[in-house]
Amino acid sequence: MDPLTHTLAGASLAQTRCGRVPLGTVTGVIGANLPDVDAATYFLGADVALGFRRGWTHGVLAVALLPPLLAWAMHLVDRIRCAQTPTATPVPVVRLLALSYLAVLSHPALDWLNTYGIRLLMPFDGRWFYGDALFIVDPWVWLALGTIVVLAHSGSRLQAAGWTALAVIATALVTGVPGVPVVLRVLWCLGLAVVAGLRVWAGLQPRLQRVATISLVLAGLYVAAMVGSSRLVRLEVAQWARDRGLEASRIMVIPSPADPFRRNVLIADDQHYHRLTFDWLASERVQPRGGATPIGDEHPAARAALAAPAIWGLATWTRFPCFTIEALTDGYRVAVADMRFGRGVVELDRNLKPR
User: Fold this and answer.
1) What CA–CA distance (Å, rounded) separates 53 from 36?
2) For residue range 188-198, what is the model confidence (pLDDT) as tens digits?
3) Domain ranges of the chain
4) How many other C-beta atoms are found inside a 10 Å radius of the C-beta of residue 44?
5) Cα-based distances in Å from 264 to 22, 115, 121, 123, 259
C-alpha cells in the first residue's frame, strides 16, 4: 500500500490501549513504515530495486527481528526523555515491544492486499503471495484510519492546516479518477465533512481509545469484504471463462481506484492474456475488454531473455510476463513486459546468450 496508508495504520494503532503511551505514535508510525527500508535500493537502480522490494524486509525473518530492534531504539529514546525530565514515567519495554510488533506486522498485511503482493516467506522461500483485494491507494481505508488520527492530532492551527491541505489533495485525487461514480465522490466528501464535524464538536476527544478501536474494526471489516468480494469475482470469472471454452490457468483480480464495486480482471490461458471488466452493479457483470494479447513465450529466446542478468529485478517481480521477439541478423532482441506494468529489453546472440 501507499506510505500514507501505512502511516495512518501505525498512528491509529498508537491510539489503542496498547499504544497510548509516551513515544507511542512515533513507535507506531516508524514500525508501520519500517519494512519499506528496502526502498533505499532504488539508489542502486530501478531493476535492482524491483528485485529486492517486498522481499527480505517484508518476510517472516524481518517481521520477527525488526520489532525488537525498534523497541530497543525507542527504549533508548525513552531513557533520554526520562533523563531530561526527572518526573517523567518510563514506558515499559513490553509495551513498546507489543506496539512495535503490531505496527510492523500491519505493513506486510496491507501490502499483501494488492496485486503487487509480497514474498512473505523470505529469505527462506521467494514465492509471491497476492491478495488482489485493494488498489494500492484506497481512499476508504484512508477515511477509516484517518478519522482517529485527525481527532488525536489536530489540536493546533498548524496541524489543522496540514490536515485540511491533505484532505484537499486527497479529494482532488478521488474526484479526479476517471470512472468513479458520482455517488462515491459525494460519499467521500460527506465522509470528510463528518470527520471535520466530529473534530469541531470535540465530544469524542475523551474517548479516543474507543474511537480508535472502532475505526480499526471498520477498516478491518471493509478489507475483509474486499477480500471476500475478490474471491467471489475470481469464481464467477472462472465459470464465465469455462462457459466460453477458455481454460484459465491464472486469474488476477485488479481492484479499481476508489470504486469497490468494479474490478479489472486478467485471465491467462496457454497462449494469450484476456482482459475483462467486472461490475457488481451491472446487469452483465462480466464484460470482455479489448482483444487477446499473445504471451509470446513459445520461443526459446523468451525464456533466455527472462533469465538475463540485465532484467533480474523485472524477472523477479513479474507475474504475467509477455514477450515480443525481433529476429536480428546475429541474434534476437526481446522486449519483456509485465501485464501489470514494467518493461525491459534484452539482446541475445545466436546461442541465446545475453550480449
Assistant:
1) 8
2) 999 999 999 99
3) 1-129, 225-293, 295-349
4) 12
5) 44, 11, 28, 32, 11
